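Reply to dn_fold:

You asked what the input looked like. This is it:
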Amino acid sequence: MAAGTTTRRRTAALLGAAAVLLPLLTVTTPASAAPAAPGRAAPEKAAPIVLGHRGASGYRPEHTLESYELAVRMGADYIEPDLVPTKDGALVARHENEIGGTTDVADRPEFADRRTTKRIDGRNVTGWFTEDFTLAELKTLRAIERLPDIRQHNTIYDGLYQVPTLQEVIDLAKRLGRQHRRTVGIFPETKHPTYFRSIGLPLENTVIATLKRNGLDHRDGRAIVQSFEPTSLRMLDKGLKVPVLQAISTAGAPYDTVANGQGPTYADMVTPAGLKEIGTYADWIGPEKSRVIPLKADGTLGTPTPLVRDAHAAGLKVSPYTFRNENQFLPADLRNGTAPGDYGKALKEYDIFYRTGIDGLFSDNPDTAIIARTAFLKSRS
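and this is what came back:
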């Protein structure tokens, strides 16, 4: 464990108060509800942070500067770029290195011969991959909506926005922080780190160098790094002072466990012993939300598991993923009608999860997360 890590675990702070500036929608977060700002003592129980999952991806094509900016305008405390490399080693924000579903590359005849099949984390994937493009080539592409059948309204923005680099995301967060007079944090995730290491494009050193170069290597929570793979997180923890989040899926094991033939499964991670081990290199866990409150056999919301309590006992904060407004992503008892893309009772879902004691959450719709958080905190005061 890196020198000073134990102190860092105790002192990492949350970010500043959220302010929602969307036209026609104003949400005021009371001062008592604000997450703890860097350099300021946290209240007895800080407000849960809201992380703009891939930006405000419920309203704009994901992982674009426009999506991130909208998330901040809606009050998100953090914006979350998933990181994958280009052929020339630049880190760009895409949920996956396969970009056939998130850019217009399939319509670009000059790149038709780049379509291929690769083995990524133990499965065959066919398409176009960021590691086969230089940054200059990737910048000629434009983002498209990943879920057009569910988020048809987002397709109006297809073809408008570029794929941003990590540096551009950092620059945006700093600019928006000055504009809105609050700290805007970044929450980058290393995607498929074992795979990229195997092809000579490791992510960790570039993440470390970029955060340090931008003055973000601090314990104050302006940057938090995350991954599903403990090996990647241990590298980041060794090289950085920033807080670390271990992402935890619903089933299976991190790919570094699979590739190495040893290591924890996700089920191992959520046991008291597993959480204690995570605490040796991380400050947070980010479980899929059904690990906090599972669904019943009929698809309705069940009762909370001990995970939040056990994580807190291990000194870890908890930020589950992913919260979305649409029926397709809600428990059966919180849906309105049967159309998958219609909005359901998302505010009620947020409230139920906030009441489990979580310390944050990832949302595609930061505005509704903020509205629900404000109501929750008001009811608690």
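The first helix runs from residue 5 to 11.
Hope that clears it up.
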